[in-house]
Design brief:
- The complex is a heterotrimer.
- By secondary structure, chain A is of the alpha/beta class.
- Chain A has one domain (about 55-285): Thiamin diphosphate (ThDP)-binding fold, Pyr/PP domains (Rossmann fold, 3-Layer(aba) Sandwich).
- Helix content of chain A is about 40%, strand content about 15%.
- The longest helix of chain A is centred in the last third of the chain and has 17 residues, at about 210-225.
- Chain B is globular, with a radius of gyration of 16 Å.
- The longest helix of chain B has 16 residues, at about 175-190.
- Chain B has a seven-stranded mixed β-sheet, sandwiched between helices.
- In chain B, α1 packs across α6 and α3 packs parallel to α6 (about 175-190).
- In chain B, α5 links the parallel β5 (about 130-135) and β6 (about 155-160).
- In chain C, α2 (about 25-35) runs parallel beside α8 (about 155-170), α8 (about 155-170) crosses α9 and α10 (about 285-300) packs across α13.
- In chain C, the strands form four sheets. Chain C has a seven-stranded mixed β-sheet with strand order 4-3-5-6-8-7-15, sandwiched between helices.
- Helix content of chain C is about 40%, strand content about 20%.
- The chains are: A alpha/beta, B alpha/beta, C alpha/beta.
- The interface of A and C includes residues 5, 93, 99, 113 and 138 of A.
- β2 (about 90-95) of chain A pairs parallel with β11 (about 225) of chain C.
- The site of thiamine diphosphate (TPP) has 18 residues of chain A, from α3 and α5.
């Protein structure tokens, strides 16, 4: 393991417990996944997001599913998730609201120059407002340019951090701040846009299916490493702004699924599929 | 506007929002030099002053930062060991700054220090002299100013790069060797009769 | 591509044998970047910047620059170079006028993040109405972004300022973005004699781990690090942390002064400083002033000239001292708002002697005669 995860001799006994745990029982180089949650020290430390926050749960699952956390650099954006990102034990960038895919583009290309023979996964994880509204041009252009980065949207169907305003991902007719008479147009079909824009893999899932979510995160990152851009949309309801009880988050997702308004979806290009098959073959040998 | 030329980098509490020393015309030392309370002096003189301050302190404390706490590249361990030895010889406490993140819900000031509110750790442990070592320059300067603003702690910054005007004493280009020189100075002073407070 | 060897900046700048070229400002940008050991350059077209970034593209095609592409808009481009810089490489980009304003949110963000990004600004008018013509109004907006700002008068300035900007920007105690401003068309599209360093030498590479803030590569510590962490609370701790951070940016700007002296030979250039009438300005307004001073001389009027090379940090002490004995200070500018005049008035003790004229804008040239008129008024 790299020296960055080792404590210098003589300082072990002054290091706070959380760092000792990270060193002794962290996920770096371990190939852990969602199934291993509870058995290792997670990357995400205590954070200030609300109780029952769907987005916080999605973040936790994504972080537990990174195929190579020791070589993953993440890019976030302003929003609720940025408050938790300060507590994440992989290098991550908060730059401005909406420029995450542009930042990730520069980051990925620079890392390629500095470490041409090393895996350096660049993973963007940002809110729906950041991804589909203010940052949409940069999100799409990173796809058009076939940047080898993974884009993950934490879709809580609102601008949560600024107090629950309508976003492009809100449902039609939803009454929210800045949509006092209800939203006038449907939820933006970003997964369709992603397919048409050159993504090699597109997925929609929620933390109600943690294992599936973990699998899809892995695929999205591995495909981005070798084949091309990937997009993952994680439906992550916000109890605070949609005014339901914090323990009802999973219930909300299930209701959506039962009513047919939310479906898990996966799209993969033949090239990406072949790559995954090849990897599996390699793993067996 | 505050008069620039008269500005001295001294223990606080300096008040609501103390200025960055660099904006008060305090300059960083050149190689071979150190900075004592805003004045450039030969490195050796600064080293002696550090030894003196450490030995006369009631509760000297080292704040090692990420650059020495984590064995991330060649040379780090040697420097970390040298810093630990110095702290031991002085009889100083070690309170780490393992990273720079704001902590939720709050830090435990007994066992750690954070650049966003270093004053909490200093107040809690009644630290009168502290040593920064292995802290990235940007975060060291942020913390050093906050300390000057809110506490009476005497700050010493052992910098691997160019030094810190916001500390009361700073050395630049600090390597394991430089730290061992301070240890030697402390030992000599002790032998000469200066006792730890 | 010429095989290039790394040479220490001091040697490269001051000890190598220079050759004289007769080239446009855009071509000078290319010559500087060729020797700057740049890893990534990112472009977006806007007149009068485009030509220089085409030429930087040629450098990429030839192998002098490792990576180059056209981004989707200026806001994105400035974010892209930011991501690259945070990953620990040396970057270059350029824009101007509306592009500068489109990208604006990034500039204080670069400074706040302590990124040694070097960006050229080929200045032009801003809308409305649209104008592609020379005007330095965008510099008024840039003055308080926390960036270091150089203003080139000549092709020679462009060459030296760009190369030296990398060295100054990347000092650990500075580590800030530097903007090199040049008046669109007047210097970018005119030919000038420029002495360049040998093309077989380039600057040493950027050293990412001398950065005052961790690099985002998962190869340095601490691993639990966000660029840049914020304390998002409404309490004094949060305010104090943010305030101290901002002060550190100001401090870093201040620390650049000694390097500006070392590499650029000072913040100002002065001719005939004891004259009663002084002209103080920057950019191509200096060249126009030189001609006016020649004309005044023929009429027997003695006029001194102060060329300000660096606007941030501002040469406060230098200007105060120079202005102390002058009776009149004339400030010609290529913009409507007169930002240079404002700057000078804010530091000169008796600022009633500062004359904010002549001012031209909208793309107009500044006939030396206009400046001469001001000189005559002062002399009578
Ligand atoms: C340029 C700019 N415009 C607006 C904002 C205000 N702002 C901050 S967070 C946010 C909402 C974020 O929404 P989303 O991306 O969906 O993330 P969420 O908080 O819902 O997780 C807004 C509008 C900003 N910080 N910067
Ligand atoms: S406001 Fe909503 S999205 Fe934001 S932290 Fe609270 S529950 Fe989560
Ligand atoms: Mg949202």
């Amino acid at each position: 393991m790299k020296g960055l995860f080792k404590i210098s001799p003589g300082y072990e006994d002054v290091m706070p417990q959380e760092y000792l745990d990270l060193v002794n029982n962290g996920p770096y180089g371990k190939n852990y996944g969602v199934d291993d949650l509870g058995t290792f020290k997670e990357l995400l430390e205590e954070h200030p997001l609300c109780a029952g926050c769907g987005l916080a749960l999605s973040m936790r699952l994504v972080l537990a599913s990174l195929p190579a956390p020791e070589d993953t650099i993440m890019v976030g954006s302003t929003g609720c998730s940025s408050l938790a990102f300060t507590q994440v034990a992989v290098h991550n960038i908060h730059s401005l609201f909406g420029n995450q895919n542009a930042v990730a583009t520069g980051l990925k290309r620079a890392l390629k120059i500095r470490f041409p023979d090393k895996v350096k996964d660049v993973v963007v994880m940002a809110g729906d407002g950041a991804t589909v509204d203010i940052g949409l041009d940069m999100v799409m252009h990173s796809w058009f340019r076939r940047e080898k980065i993974t884009t993950i949207m934490l879709d809580n169907e609102a601008y949560a951090n600024t107090g629950g305003q309508e976003s492009g991902m809100s449902q039609q007719n939803a009454v929210l701040n800045m949509a006092p008479t209800g939203k006038k147009f449907p939820k933006i079909a970003l997964p369709e846009v992603a397919k048409a824009s050159g993504c090699a893999y597109v997925g929609v899932v929620s933390p109600a299916q943690p294992k599936r979510l973990g699998d899809m995160v892995r695929k999205a990152i591995l495909i981005a490493r070798e084949v091309g851009p990937t997009y993952l949309q994680l439906y992550s309801p916000c109890p605070t702004n949609y005014k339901f009880k914090s323990r009802e988050t999973m219930q909300k997702i299930k209701e959506r699924m039962e009513s047919g308004m939310f479906e898990v979806m996966e799209y993969i290009t033949p090239e990406a599929e072949a790559f995954l098959a090849e990897m599996k073959e390699g793993d067996k040998q | 506007m505050t008069a620039k030329s008269s500005y001295k980098v001294l223990p606080g509490p300096e008040g609501y929002l103390p200025p960055a020393a660099a904006t008060m015309s305090v300059m960083l030392p050149d190689p071979g030099e150190g900075l004592v309370e805003g004045e450039i002096v030969p490195q050796e003189q600064a080293i002696n002053k550090i030894a003196e301050k450490l030995l006369s302190a009631k509760n000297p404390t080292f704040f090692p930062g990420p650059l020495v706490l984590w064995a991330w590249k060649d040379g780090v361990i040697e420097k970390a060991v040298a810093a630990k030895e110095l702290a031991d010889v002085v009889g100083a406490k070690i309170i780490p700054m393992p990273d720079y993140r704001p902590k939720y819900p709050m830090i435990n000031p007994e066992i750690e220090i954070n650049p966003n509110h270093p004053n909490l750790t200093i107040w809690h442990n009644k630290i009168d002299v502290c040593v920064f070592v292995g802290v990235h320059c940007h975060f060291a300067n942020i913390a050093l100013k906050i300390i000057r603003g809110g506490t009476s702690c005497y700050t010493i910054a052992l910098c691997g790069e160019m030094g810190h005007e916001d500390a009361m004493i700073t050395l630049r280009d600090v390597k394991a060797d430089t730290i061992r020189k301070i240890t030697e100075a402390v030992k000599e002073m002790k032998a000469g009769g200066v006792v730890s407070g | 591509m010429v095989e290039q060897k790394v040479l220490e900046p001091e040697k490269l700048f001051f000890e190598t044998q220079r050759t004289e070229l007769f080239i446009t400002g855009s071509e000078v940008v290319k010559e500087a970047i060729k020797r700057a050991n740049v890893d990534i350059a990112i472009s977006y077209p806007i007149t009068p910047q485009s030509e220089s970034m085409h030429l930087v593209g040629d450098l990429y095609a030839e192998g002098y620059v490792k990576e180059y592409f056209r981004g989707e808009n200026e806001f994105a481009v400035m974010s892209e170079v930011m991501g690259a810089s945070m990953a620990g490489v040396r970057v270059f980009t350029a824009t101007g006028g509306p592009g500068t304003l489109r990208a604006f949110e990034n500039f204080p963000n670069w400074s706040g993040s302590r990124l040694p990004i070097v960006c050229a600004f080929m200045t032009r008018g801003v809308n409305a109405p649209l104008s592609i013509q020379p005007d330095t109004i965008e510099m008024a907006f840039m003055l308080d972004t926390g960036m270091i700002m150089f203003h080139a008068e000549t092709g020679q300035d462009i060459f030296d300022m760009i190369l030296k900007a990398y060295v100054i920007a990347e000092k650990t105690d500075v580590h800030l973005p530097i903007g090199i401003f040049m008046d669109g068309f007047f210097v970018t599209h005119t030919r000038d004699k420029v002495k360049v360093t040998p093309e077989e030498f380039k600057l040493p590479p950027y050293k990412p781990y001398c950065s005052p803030i961790p690099v985002m590569d998962m190869e340095n510590v601490p691993v639990r690090h966000m660029r840049d962490p914020f304390v998002m609370k409404s309490n004094f701790i949060s305010y104090a942390a943010h305030a101290s951070w901002q002060q550190e940016i100001l401090a870093a700007v201040e620390r650049s002064r000694k390097y500006i002296y070392r590499y650029l030979g000072g913040m100002v250039e002065v001719e005939n400083k004891n004259a009663d009438i002084l002209i103080i300005t920057s950019g191509t307004a200096v060249s126009q002033s030189r001609e006016a001073i020649e004309l005044a001389k023929q009429e027997g009027i003695d006029v001194g000239l102060v060329k300000i090379k660096c606007l941030r940090p501002f040469p406060v002490d230098e200007i105060r001292e120079l202005a102390a004995n002058a009776k009149y200070i004339i400030v010609p500018e290529f913009n409507r708002v007169g930002w240079m005049c404002r700057e000078l008035k804010s530091v000169i003790e008796d600022n009633s002697k500062v004359i904010g004229a002549p001012r031209v804008f909208g793309g107009m040239t500044m006939p030396p005669k206009l400046i001469l008129d001001e000189i005559r008024r002062c002399a009578n």
